[in-house]
Model the fold of this input.
Amino acid sequence: MRVLFREVEVAAERVDVLVDGSRVAAIGRRLQPEDEQGLEVVDGRGGALLPGLHDHHVHLLALAAAQASVDCGPRVRDKPGLASALRAAEGAWVRGTGYHQSVAGDLDRQVRDELVPDRLVRVQHRSGALWMLNSRALEVVSGVLDDSPDVERDQDGKPTGRLWRYDARLRPALPQVDLDLARVGQTLAEYGITGVTDATPDLDAGALSLLGGALARGDLPQSVMLLGAPAGAGLAPRLSAGPVKLLLRDHDLPTFRDLSETIATVHGTGRRVAVHCVSSESLVLTLAALEQVGALQGDRIEHAAVVPPGIASWVAALGLAVVTQPDLLRSRGEQYLHEVDPAERPFLYPFRSLLSAGVRVAASSDAPYGDLDPWQAMRTAARRTSAAGETLEGEETVSPATALAGYLSAATDPGGTPRRIKSGAAADLCLLHVPLAEALREPAAELVRLTSIAGRLHHSP
Ligand SMILES: [Zn+2]
Done:
């Protein structure tokens, strides 16, 4: 298939762009393709044609599951609201996501049993780290509960139904659900996203085959880099193995020695590390371990949610990239304003100070735990305001253009030089209704007109 984009804005110039198959074939003023047969012409009307956006940190399967789950987030106001939302769900198993204490407090097992007594219920905390099961559900999954501290137990040693970081271990005890990755692929395309990095750690064979199948069928048209690809696994086309995600648990941090050894082992296999750091303790521990082992080009920090003064230059000296989520300041802003130590708030999800220190930084979504919309992330990055409009402290705003640049950087180089549209490059493109300068004044998902992924067009509504 060939597509001719007429009168589009590329790097501030009005040009035509010819796509042949999955590649950009030519760029120039008033291109006259010799053969017009089978040529689809898109009149750009001066709208910007950008390289397709890459979301550097998402969780695809969780996103598909969240789209098919009961939203237990702050949109549900209180306990009766939560009960009726859960009870309205269909199927033997009821799956809730996005729960936060502001809805109905700490959901202990008694409350969970009251909410839905007669069905199997599991509710996920908004952090994604914790599952809370009611008694019936707990009984059904008893076969997969291990002796680790991830299974919370009461004084008598009985499981309480609270399971930490248990997704992969829980899966064998749950019914196979058909995850609709086509809907995820469609949503991503509507935002102009042509590639993603899946940040889920330790993907098992089942997860890999779900993703591989969705890519092979074209349900998920995007290219996907996996931080959770197992060592030595053969991967389906358009799936690639990225750095290895290391999840540091703040309530149970590894020792300096253990972390250093883990990083050295990963480096020894030729891969890089992507270390989840959401506290200053875990960040400092990680930086020290990377310094000990020797950081490699491509090692990255996920979140860097708190970066105290003076630490940014250390991140820069080690050559690490930071994959941040500015929009959490909006979607979780109220929570941060209540729960985060005011002394730490100016250093929460920093952006500008990292760039000033010379760190490569890329914005991302962490969807479904954050909002998937990259254009919303660009707006929040420029404002640092919560959903209720309160501004969070810190001299950390960046322009929408700066936030966009991170989305344009390559999967393998988050925060690096933005990709460019050029002859021979992959036809992963995002066409806007308006010129770029206009889009950046008030970035919005509605400005995406269509997305080309490997030369196939996906029109936005
Ligand atoms: Zn994540």
